[in-house]
Each structure stands twice: as structure tokens, then as C-alpha cells.
Fold these 2 entries.
Entry 1:
Amino acid sequence: MSVVVFVEADNGTIKKSSREAVTYASKLEMGEVVAVAMGTLTKDELASLGKNGATKVWHANDTRLNDGVIQATAQVVAEAAQKANADVVVMSRSSLVDAIASRVAVKIGAGVATNVVALPKTDNGFIVKRSIYTGKAFADVRLDNPKKVLTITKNAVGIEENGNLAPVDTFSVSLSEKDFAVRRTGIEKATGTILLPEADRVVSGGRGLKGPENWGMVEELAKVLGAATACSKPVSDMHWRPHHEHVGQTGIKIAPTLYIAIGISGAIQHLAGVNASKVIVAINKDAEAPFFKAATYGIVGDAFEVVPKLTAALKKHLN
Amino acid sequence: MKILVCISHVPDTTTKIKFVNNKLDTTGVQFIIGPYDDYALARAVELKTEINATVTVLNVGKAETEPTLRKALAIGADDAIRIDAEPLDALFVAHQIAAVARQENYDMILMGRESSDFNGGLVHGLVGEMLGIPSIAPCMKLELNGRIAKLAREIEGGKETLEVALPFVAGCQEPIAEWKIPNMKGIMSARTKPLKVVPPVPVEGVSTYVSFELPPAKGACKMISPDNVEELVLLLKNEAKVL
């Protein structure tokens, strides 16, 4: 018995979400936990996955895999799952995982469930809880296939860090031309900012901010909190902010511990993207804004006055 | 050029979700084309005028999904296929699509990045792997240059641009195109466009939805005076313990 975990890195650093997937895999208590990482990574970084629960680390050290190529990555994960004779393959949701989980499942003949929010119940079959209706409900799903692929959401188990370093081995795969049929011609990526899906705190702005020139105070507040910035759909539609910052029904779904919404009314489509947040603070000048029904804490007031005051108060407390 | 657009038939995104007898309570629920699928359809319809293409729209569902398929025809698809079965899970749906695609040799198979009901986000990749062709998702831009497609795919913190030769599968999202609203001419012509009903192929190893539940109710929102933001900071620190 074994569990294979697909581990992702960003600029040589293993993602927190991948460490959580490793912990999830170890808590399945199904034998060896084989963490599969690819691309350029140091041995120390790879061995540290043992702290999160990996018993072995396999490293596909091929620079062509730095780019997150969908087909090739799926092929490597599937070959690792076959070599380890894995019962379960675990990965944390990301833009790459969302694209490869399905392909891995077909390659190894597995059943697959995405958006899994907790450890499975195994006393009567293998049942996982999934988030459905864009966060508005949950479903228990039974996977009868002996092989399973699971993608987990943030905070499905939390990260454990008290294990030992794991042995690292090179994992070689035979990739074909076909695995690289999709060619990357360019990349635009925000640098030096906290990636939204990974962020533990998020500060988000809506139409109430009146224009892109007013985002300074959102960024200022985010900086004090060490938070990522996000926005509502109208804001990205009007190109005040880039699309990858849009959270909501048709944007990114996030689950931070703290979500601060500034000048966002809280339409049901927006809430669908943020309702998995642990604590929500809504700041809006309209006391009737629907966000006040979904938030933990609310302030009815002018964002242009409240936000700088909040930033100042936080600065004082956090230092 | 032949384009297949796969659409889901889902509750309007403003629907208040309730369950009765372990099933979605559909009383008063309005069903729509999945919002992401609607983007894929809109781009396919645009491509009809940019290149010489036909657009077939497909749904896996029972007879009650036909109005949704007719709406897709009204928006501009040329013909429709309904696989006559409950869409049991992503694997089941993907097998149905792959079975049709194997006979028809589509140049492109487009759909939403995920359905807005079960949010699996799996069907595009499953179909791609089953057919042995590339799959790209979430796809936010799609242009054609002969048999080469130029695409943009959203990644964390930005996007990447990609090139791939036809055929391929793409799971689409905004801003690939603007949603299209059917006009009167479209609605009239949709009534007579062909809609073929096809029996499903058998699929083994489908997952079983055992039960449904709603998230725990949120407590009341604690209101804080705008003149006392200090209080919010203290609450975040001492009560919510998130600072």
C-alpha cells in the first residue's frame, strides 16, 4: 500500500499547499507516502517534505518540467503512481493540479474526486466530502474504484511539521514529444506578491473604491497584514485590476483565515468565491449591503476614512 | 472546421441551494447553461464568423435539459446532441463525450473550466486523455492561425501564453468572449435546428453521491463603529484569533 503526492514548487520553494497534501497523505495511514516533485529543486528542500509526513521523495530532475506543462506533468505523476503501486494519489488544488488530476486518473485507471475538504471516512467504503455548488453545499461521495485520485482544498487537514527528513531519490521518466505538444510562448506573472490561492490573509476591493488609482490604500493594508490583494468581478471586468485577482463564482475561490472586503456589496456570486474564509470583515458605506449577512465583522462607513485608520491601528498592534 | 461545445445544465447562480430526499430541491429553480460553458459557446460562435466553422453543442442529460440546448442553438450553435442519461459523474460524462468525438473527429472541443453545480473541473482533461489529445484549462483566450491555436491560460498570479496544433480540448473561462444573449431571429431558428438524442455508452466505476449537506449557518455579523476601528483589531486578535 502507498500514497503518491504530487508536490509543486514556486521558484525553488515547495508550496505550502503541497506540504499540506503530504500531511493529508500521511494521515490516510495507507503505508508509504511518496512525494513526487519535479524541476529544479535543492536536495534540502526536497528532504524537508519528510517533516510533513513523506517517507520517500522522488525527484524528476528535468528542467523541461519547471514550466508546469500539463501533459508531461500528468505523465510523470502517473508513472510514479504506477511504480509505487499507489492506492491513492493526493494533490492540492492549483491551476496546474486542476488541469492534470483528470489526466492522471485516466492514465492509471482511477476514480477521481476534486475539491475534497477533509480526510475520508473509510469505515464503509472510501467516502470523501467535496465542496459543491461553488461553496454553497457539501456532498459525501463514495469512490469504489480501488485506485483514487484526490485534489484537496486549502485547510483540508492543516500542515504538520514534526517528521524527520526523508530520503531523496532521482526519478527518471521517459517523456515523449507528444507530452510537450503544447508549447509555452510567454508568461506574465506578478513578482514579489503573495499568490492569492496560497494566501492566509486577503484584502479585496470592489466598485466602492471608485477607481484603480485608489488601490494604494488596499495595498497598504495588505502589506501591513502580509496579505494578498484581490478584487470583485466588476473591478476586473473594468480592468481596474488584473483578472488573476478576481475572486468569486467565475473567478478564483479562496479560503484564507482572514478576508477583508472593502467596498464590495457581497452579491451571491462574489460570496461563492470567498465563503470558505474563516473570518470575513466587510467594510461598506451601505448598511443594507448583503455582505453584512455573510461577514463575521462589519463596519458601515466610508472606505476612504475607515481603511487608513484600520491600517494605522493594525500597524500599532502588529509591531 | 468542426467545433464541439459541451454544456452543462445547472441551477441559476443566484439559486438558494436546498436538498429534499437527498436531492437538490428544484422547486422554483431556473436552469441555465453553465456560466463557464456559456463563455466557451460564445467564443465558438464568434469563431464561426472568423473562420469557416460549424458548432455542435452537446449535453449529457434527460429530456428536461432540451430547453438549455435550444438556448445554445438560439445563441448560434448549428446543431445539438443530447446524450439521454443522468450525468452521474465527471467520468461518466467524459466517456459519453469521448464516444461521440471518436466518431466525429472534431477539430476543437470546448467547454467551461468546470460546471457550477458539482465544480469537478475534470471533464476537459478526462476527454483529452481519453482521446489522446492535449487539454488546456483554464483557457482565457483562444485565437486560430490555420491549424495552430494560440491560447492564454490563467496561472497563479498571472497567465501564460501557449501554442498547440489542432485538435485539442479546452476548459474555458472569462475573458475568452462575452456572453451572448439570443436575439429573436436566433430563437426562431433554434426551433428547427437539428437536435439528436443519442443513448449513452455504458461506463464502469462511476462514483456514488451518498449524501448532501449545507454549510453550518453563519452567526450574526458583529457591527463595529467606523470611529472605533481599534475595536475591530482587538476582536480579530482576541476573539477571532486571526492576527
Entry 2:
Amino acid sequence: MNGTREAPRIGVYVCDCGFNILGTVDVPGVVRYAATLEGVIVAKEYKYMCSDPGQALIGKDIREQRLNRLVVASCTPTLHERTFRRVASEAGLNPFLFNAVNIREGVSWVTDDKGEATGKAKALVRAGVRRVALQEALEPRSEPVNPNVLVLGGGIAGMHAALSLANANSGAKVHLVEREPSIGGNMARFDKTFPTLDCASCILTPKMTEVKIHPNITLHSYAELVGVEGYVGNFDVTIEHKPRYVNEDLCIGCLKCVEACVYKDPRFPNAFDLGLAKRKPIYIPFPQAVPTKVLIHAEDCLHLKFGKCKDTCAEACEKDAIDFGQKPERVSLKVGSIIVSTGYKTFDARRKPQYGYGVLPNVITALEAERFLAPTGPTNGIPTLGDGRLPKKVGIIHCVGSRDRNTNAYCSKVCCMYSLKLAHLIRERTGAEVYNFYIDMRTPGKGYEEFYDQLLSEGVKVIRGRVAEVTRAALTEAERGHLIIRVEDTLAGMVRRVPVDLVVLSVGLEPQADTQELRRMLNLSCGREGFLQELHPKLAPVSTATDGIYIAGACQGPKDIPETVAQAGSAASEALALVHRGKVEIQPYTAVVDEELCSGCRVCVGMCPYDAIAYDEEKKVVHVLDVKCKGCGVCAAACPSGAMDQKHFRSELVLAEMAGVI
Amino acid sequence: MTEYLYFPGCSLKGAGAPYEKSLLAVFRALGLGLKEIPDWNCCGATAYLSVDAEMGVVLAARNLALAEREDGKDVVAPCSGCYLALTKAKSTIAEYPDVRAKVTDALGRAGLPYTGRAVVRHPLEVLMTDAGPERLRGRVTRPLKGLRVAPYNGCAILRPYGGVDDTHTPHVLEDLVRLVGATPVDYPHKARCCGGMLTSGVQTVGLRLVEILLDAAKAAAANAIVTTCPLCQYNLEVYQNRLRKATGKDLGIPVIYFTQMLGLAYGLDDRALGMDQLLRVPVLAAPAEVRA
């Protein structure tokens, strides 16, 4: 081994990171200071340590100067710890004799004053040098990867990822978990997709069916993730199936039960139609639902609510599939990786009260407009007003809740394009005059600008300006009885009042309401807007800070269908790569016992979440089972006599590092 | 008896006298006490706040400091301008330490401590919250059946501080109209501008705004407009003839205070409600007819 007992010969390499660090930190000063520290043989500065020449520089020094310890002061270890461990390893140095010091995210990016930043960088380098001197060589461990993959969310992202994985025939089985009774996600609600105006169902339903029948996919619909344990390659997940009160294996989707329900007319809001259409207590969410199985909404069903009903549904069912006694059911699965594709929710338009949503009649959201335009929707594809008339003039208001510091500052990216699509469809179905009120028309994408051009030539009107309000307060006889859109037309330089019959609010996309719970369960992070955070915005867009968990689609940020599908494919290939590798390296940070100090109190045994500590009856001490230990450190913290320590995080290392900082 | 501290402001002692009369009469009828803040001064509204904002805040704060002497009693400010000025002063002092320092210094020299604990309320909200709809309805002896009322809130009690009703879709005044047996008409203009000071400053703009409100009330076939603010009442009432001459439209409609409306429904004397000081009064069904 690269002698852990020899006197330390430490090399310190301080990275400029272009101007990222150099701009705020006096790097030559830090280098000069590092050279004075005990055990430091060589200290150097370089423009980009992570570049090939930078790496070569370090490798050469390790060999020629016989360095036995390495410190690189650069960016966060999540980015390049792996890189420099490899550099050490290739130069014949045990990779665990390297220490990463973060002077970019931890110093230069968050400190304005150059003097302060330089002082802080020096302190961190001093801490890193003291720590590395005490580090010991460790051997990485590896464990086999479970080839199965869990996909969370059965919208277009989840379905595409699941099918990509399943079609690879790699031996990987896919578990697709969808919390709604049917897969399909929001895309199933749309009639047409931009910019090609191809029918959403026509491209979506074949995929839905394929998911259902694919031998490599197990579909868990109407189920939610409730627990996750383990780590990359070896996750233990628990999902809970919500009761449908219908035996999914027996139901053939004939709908005779729905016909027979004691409620003769549908009277409960159907969530799939955003409450715009009604359903019975026993129902199928929409005609193309997959699985094509009915379910009973417990709060609406007379039997389940009051225990009193003629149970005509059960009588009508020839398969005896109705099961009022169903309870939530938990299922445990073992998977090696997880793809999160939980999608988005739309902005609540009530948060912009000046647009009158929920107060004024005939003010609807874009998602509701999608349902009105869908042939399976509440008005069979022809958007009508509340009283059944066809609208003559329609206003579509862009950026509702988006690009607005009072609500969401970010651009939701898809709204300009879907608003144009809605304008086209509304004109096509109703012959109405359609106005789009926009701040900026954002149509980057293949065929997108051309679509905008096409719409303009069709005669859709566009007015540039953020709408001030939608009101019924008429000023003239002509305005009376209409919704008046008040807006500053910033191209014409005037205030306009546009009377319309129907207002469509182009609401932005937001993270799902329970993203934070999911984030905690999966140990992920979220960005400022609350969307799930990728490992690197450019270079690792579907990976996360937790190995083996990937993200795809709008749960990561607003995106349209083509981008979502591309990302889903990318996440699937990341998961497949892991399956193909077959094993994962596990950090060797296991716990160790100093038998001299161990009193045999066994506090640690009870604390260990992995059952990795055993008690030796003969020696009256505990010992750690390396294979089971995950290196969480709980036992080391709990041990009253200081006998338990964790490799790479031994008390003396941590204390030396702390002493270096202060 | 619940007692409130009454801050009349200049309007209620002047052109808004019918408001004061009806307010006092209705509070008395409901067994609610109103004690005028002794030695109150200008609320600081409009002119002061526009010319010297800090001085305006100090003026308003003096009234609040006086109110603090009567600990635990809420301030009732019936004029929307006063309500806004007092609320704004309180909020500004709380938000800006430098303003607070000026205020405490100025008032301190007069021996008046200011802590900011006085609560400023509008009588519409006091009646609807503290007395409550049941008690308000229970006192009605002469339901205003057949009276079609345009409920007009104006701006200052809704924006920007609010505290009385929903800012964008106010409904409390409408609820009160229903409560006394009258019929609220559909009046989407209820939170639009009455013209404010523009009726004297920039008349072409101010009177156009008045015209819009009267026009909409007439179009909705209202017999009366109900207001919560002396300036709204003044603007909507006094320019009717002039607008008729200018536009050729019949824009004549009684404009009454919500407290007058309540008083009428409580069967209080017209003179006690200041009805005789209005230019137009609503025609009500005879009490006998109502009972029949």
C-alpha cells in the first residue's frame, strides 16, 4: 500500500476555474500559503485542474515527487471528487488518500470581498491538508445491481422510459407506478399537439396499450410510493395500491356495472375532466383508460358511505369483480434504479384574481380548454359558453402566473405554443375571432416559429401586453354583457379594451403539490422553483445527487412533449447502463470497532438501521458486518465509550479538519 | 355595551353630515357605543400625504396615539379617506424604522407615546363582523322590499390595504343590501373609481368616471346607489344635473350611505338619518303596503 505510515508528502493543487475562483480568490497567494503547511511538498496553481493537462500535472507530480497525499482545492466534490480519485489511482496512489477542498461553491461564488474569500480559501486548504495527513488507504467495495427499475408516474415521460427499458430486453423488469386510476398523464387530456397538430390520443393510446401488455412491464395503477430504503443498485421500495373496490384481475371493463348503478345519471365531478363532466360513483375515468378497469369512488358510493344500497352494480357484474371489502394493499419491490417522472400541476388561476377565474362566468384555464376541445370531453370537442352558445370572440391570456414576480418568476416554456394551438383549434371548431395577449412570443423549437407564422396567416390576432384585468364593468352599450379584457398594447402604445365572450387563461406549469414529500422520500433536492433538481444542468440533466435515481419530464422543470420524451429516453439509457455494468462501487466508509474500548453495552446494535452489528458473546464486544454496513455513522455517534468509528470519517480526521478551519 | 372610538374626520362634520347622523343613529339602535376621540385632528389624507408624506404620517399617528389612551377600544373611521390614511400611516410606521423614529420623536415632544397597537376599522366591517348578520337583520322593522340597490364600494376600503372585504370581488355591501330586504342589482362597477379629487382637479376625467358609474347603475335598473364613503357619495350625487345637461342622458338616481339604508330599514326617523340633507331620496314602499 502507498504507505499510510510514511511521513506525509502532500501535494496541494489550487484551481483557478477560469475566473470562477481566480476572480474572487487570490489563488497565487493561497498556493504560496499552502506551500508553508506541514507535510506539503509541492503546491501549484492551474487554470483548470479538471482538464487533461491539469490532471496530467497532478499525476506527474505524484509519480516524480513520490507524493503520498493529495489535496485539490477546486469546485464541489459532487462534481470532481471522482475525477481526482481516478487521477490519484492512475498515478499509483490510493484514491482515499485524496481530499477535495471546495473553494468555488463554498467560497468564491458566495463571497464578495476578495480579502475575505482568500482568507476563507486558505483556512479550508489548511483544514484539508491536516485532514489528508491522517487519512488512510481504503479499498472500494462493489455490490451487484438489481436489474429491475421502478418508474414513478405513468404520463408520457414514464411510459416512454418504461417502454425504452422494457424493449431493451436486458433482463430488466420495469415496475410502472401511477397514482391515478389510468396511465396517460396530462397528455391524455389533450386533443391535438403542437406544432404538427397530430392527434394526441392517436399517438398516446398505442403506447398506453403497449405498456399494459408488455411482458417486461408490471403496471401498478392507482398506487403510490410510500417508502424507499437502500441505495443505488439495491433499493427496497414499498408501494400502496389504493382500493378500487373492483377486482382488477376479474374486471373486463364491460361497464355493465356503471350502467346498473342506482344513480341513474352521472352527478359527481370527474377528475380526469377537471370536474367539467360528471360521472357515477362507479366509473371509468375516460374511454381509452389503461387499465380498462372500473373503480368506485368511496365518498360517492352509497354502499361504501352508508352501507345501504341495492348493490345493483355487483348484481350486474357477471365476473363477480365488485369487492366492497377491498383495503389499501402494500407491495414490496426490489429494484436497482428509480426513474422519477411525476409531471407537473398547472398554476391555480385563482391566485390572479384580476382575471376573474372562479368568479366570472366563461373564464376558463387552458387545461379546461383542452378538455372542451377533446372529442371525449364535456362538450364533445366544440367549446361552448356556459349557456350553450358558441363564442364569437375569444381572448387567450398568456403568462398567467408565469414571468411574474408576484407568483412564479420563471417562464413556463410551453404556454406560448399551446396557446397558439388552442387559438387554432377554437377558430376551427367555433369560427370565433381569437385574440392572443402575450408579453413575448416564445416559439423556439423545430417547426414552432413556422407554426406561429401559420397562425398569423390564418387570422389569429395577437396583441402584445400583459393583461391588466378581465372585467364585466362595461363603459359602452357595445361592451355590456361581455367580458372586457383591459390591456396596454405595448406595440401600438395605447390602452385597449377588448370585449370577448370567452377568456382562456394560459396557466403556467408548477411542481406537483407533494414534490417536497417525494423529495424527502427519495433524498433528492429541489431548485428554487420547487422542481426536482438535476445533478448538473448541462452535463447530467437526468441524473440526481442520489446515485441510481433519475428524473425525466416536467417534474424537473416545464417542458413540452418532444423534450419530455427525449429526457425519458435519456433516463432509461442511464438506468440501462447501470444494469449493464452489473455492479456498483460502494464507498468503503464502514464502521470499525476498537475492541479495547468497547464495553459491550450494545447501544449501537439497537441503533443500527441495517442490522449490521453483531455481539460477540465470548469477547463481550461488538463487531461490524462489513457487507451489511452502509456507513451511515449512527453507531459512531451513539457509542458512549468512543469505541465505534467510521472509516474516512474517524473522529481524529474530523477534529483535525475542524482545527484547521479555526 | 361594546364601545368604539369614533374618528369623524372633516367630511362627517361637513358635507358628510348625513353619514354621521345615520352612523350614530344606527350604532345607537344596535346598542353599540361610539365615543368621539377627544381632540382629534386631520387624518392627513390627500393633500398632506401628497405634499409632505412624513408630516401626513405624523398627523395620522397623532390620532392613533390619542386612541391608544383608551386601550382595547377599536377606532372606527367611517370616511374611506380617513380609513386609508390611518391604515397607511400605521403600516408605514411599522415597515420603515426611520419614519417610526420621526413619528415617535414628534409625538414624544407632545407627550404622546405611539406603539401602533390601535386597531383601525371601517363601520361596514364592524357592523357585519361584531354585530353580525343575524343581529343586523333582527333589528329590521321595515324591510326595503322592492328597492333595487347598486352596491358601490369605491376604492379606498378595498385597496391597497383592504381589511373590509375581498379586494377583487367585494360582496359584503351586497350582503347587507340583501339583509335589509332590498335587491342588489348586478353592478360590476362596484369597485371602480368615483373620480375622487379629479372631479375638481381634472373635471373632464373626473366627471367621465362619475358618468360611467351612474350610467351602469341606471342600466341595471337600480333605484338607488349605496355608498360607504363621503367623497363617493358627493361625486355621484352632486354632478348628476350637470352630466344630464352634458350628455343628454337621464342619470338621476338617489345616492345614499349604507348607514342610511340600514336606518331606513330599522324604521328610524328620516331627519335623524339626515335624509333631508340629500339631493334625492329613494322612494320606498309605504310601511303599510309592506306589511300587507
